[in-house]
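Q: LemA family protein, please. Structure only.
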Amino acid sequence: MEWLIPVLIVVVLALVVGIYLWATYNSLVQLNVRVDEAWSDITVQLKRRADLLPNLIETVKGYAAHEKAVFENVTQARAETLSATGPAEAGVAEGHMQQALRSLFAVAEAYPQLQASQNFLQLQQSIVDTEDKIQASRRFYNGGVRELNTKIKVFPNNMFARRLGFAEREFFEVVDGAAISEPPRVQF
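A: Structure for LemA family protein:
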């Protein structure tokens, strides 16, 4: 009968450790899925913006056809955004896109008749709306990454999380912070 107490203690400890591992694994899976979902939201918004840009370029081209370098920069930034495969590449592309949009809107400001065009104003408003959605999606993604990375790094999770296949994720940070320190200026 004396052996029953130590065996019972070992069984209870194994059960507690097993429940802890099960709960931690499930929470890591949930956080991982949340981060994947958030990244998907970002790519949807980046794609939406990329789909709006050709229309915006064509509208501005009608008034300022001689601004070829600006249009080429926007087109190149759009291609870079669409080809980005992860947060690091997307961060670089986002910096270039913000600079290109700023140049495009600066060109548009020089043409009062363009500023009066209903089509241009609608496209401009759609771009602004999409930029807001990208920022919100980015904050949601980075919040999910922060939670997941913290859960992976804290003790005792750090002893087994990587062995279970969980890795820290990259934040979506724009490489050139000055490029997004001020959003594209839109005047109506």
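A: Brief note, in case it's useful. Helices lie at 4-61, 68-83, 87-109, 112-115, 118-153, 177-180.
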